[in-house]
Amino acid sequence: MDYAKITIDDIIDYCKANGQVAWLKEVASRKVEYKVYPKVEKDGKMVSDKKATPTIEMRPISFIQIKIEFVNKFMPEIAPKAQKKESMYDKIMAL
Predict the structure, then answer these.
(1) N or C: which terminus of the chain has fewer CB atoms within 10 Å of its end residue's CB?
(2) How far apart are CA 80 and CA 67, in angstroms?
(3) Confidence of residue 18 (pLDDT cuts 50, 70, 90)
């Protein structure tokens, strides 16, 4: 399976075939925190004020968050790997 091409139908089919429907239902029923910034008027438009203290609200988990949890639990080998860039110190030491 390719990480970038996984759909919700792929996740559902996998969970049905492998007896993980209860796990999927539990994950899908979760609420996650997100920040809500107050709105201010700027140049005639209402925009979020990122300098102000946000309020924390709850919302249903997103597909991307479900996909990340699914891949981490059942297929960690296909999870994208973060590539660390070589620092200037690494480059100098490699000389």
Answers:
(1) C
(2) 12
(3) very high
